[in-house]
Amino acid sequence: MLSEELYRKIQRFHFTTKRLASDLFAGQYESAFKGRGMEFAEVREYQLGDDIRTIDWNVSARFGRPFVKVFHEERELTVILILDISGSHLFGTREKFKRELLAEVAGMLAFLAIRTNDKVGAILFSSRVEKYIPPKKGASHVWRLIKEIFTYEPVDLSTNIDGVLTYLNRVARRHTILFLISDCMDTGFEKSLRLTAKKHDLTVIRVTDPAEEALPEVGLVLLRDPETGERVLINSRSRRFRERWRAYTREQEEYLMELFSRAGVDHVELTTDGPVVEPLARLFEMRRRRL
Q: Residue 163 belongs to what domain range?
């Protein structure tokens, strides 16, 4: 049973993401993610500017004037949001937790999908597939999806991206639009990422917090790994430790960028203190130009 406070929070979030999707991304999502082909719609009289390759010569000969075939894009797509709800997303030092940022992005993408009559579903995962929400249409379905993101308590707190991608390739047999939304704090998913990108249209949206890249200088700090529960005491003012921390984050960043590039995967970087709309708009525009 939802508390009244949480219910109101989800309602506000639901309204905000719906408004952003309606006002700011009109047409951009649709032009960035195209259908798989064209289907015949009708025959009509030729108009100035029509492509002569679409002339229906049989109908034109029958009526003694030119007619053209009209085709429409097979628009209905299936979108699946692959959402990382592991323990590392219960972290945030700025405006929001990473899981709240994840929910915001997922909500906007879900509304964009149903606005263009696409079906949208979700997979919530940690070290295992926690919950699969099959793709459907409609605003009530998006409401359920957002509610699950906010309220679902994972059974496990660690991360296994390879496992969820392997699972997805079993349940999604047809070509699907995929968004993997995660901080990508994992390794060993190179092969499954390449296979998924080859079979489907995969975009990675990576969510991070500024403190993960540059530790604030606050002296002695007791850190707890949210996925393993391990605790460690560090001196955040130690120059040597800070250099090692920066070297590790750079190494992880380079590893992921090379991995995405080799797999041919589009990716977006979002932070808990940064904008959401602009990076997604740039992604859609890049895809539109490429198409």
A: 4-31+75-290
Two structure tokens written together for 181: 């939304």
Query: How many domains would you assign to the chain?
Result: 2
SS3 31: helix
Q: Please say whether the beta carbons of 118 and 234 come within 8 A.
A: no
Let me know whether 193 and 60 are in one domain: no
Q: Is residue 45 located within the same domain as residue 175?
A: no
Mean per-residue pLDDT pooled into runs of 10, the chain (291 residues): 70 74 69 65 84 89 89 75 94 87 91 88 96 92 88 92 95 92 95 96 96 79 76 83 86 94 95 90 88 71
Q: How far apart are CA 234 and CA 245, in angstroms?
A: 11
Q: In whole angstroms, what is the distance from residue 189 CA to residue 20 CA?
A: 33
Global confidence as pTM: 0.82
Residues 6+ apart with CB under 8 A from 78: 118, 119, 120, 121, 135, 172, 174, 176, 177
The gap from C-alpha 7 to its chain's centroid, in whole angstroms, comes to 24
Q: Which residues of 162-194 are buried (b: 16+ CB within 10 A; e: fewer)?
A: bbbbbbbbeebeeebbbbbbbbbbbeebeebbb
- DSSP structure class, residue 130: E
Q: Are 229 and 129 in contact (CB under 8 A)?
A: no
Query: Using CA atoms, how far apart are residues 123 and 81, in angstroms rounded to an integer?
Result: 6
pLDDT the model gives residue 115: 84
Measure the CA–CA gap between 145 and 16, rounded to whole angstroms.
15
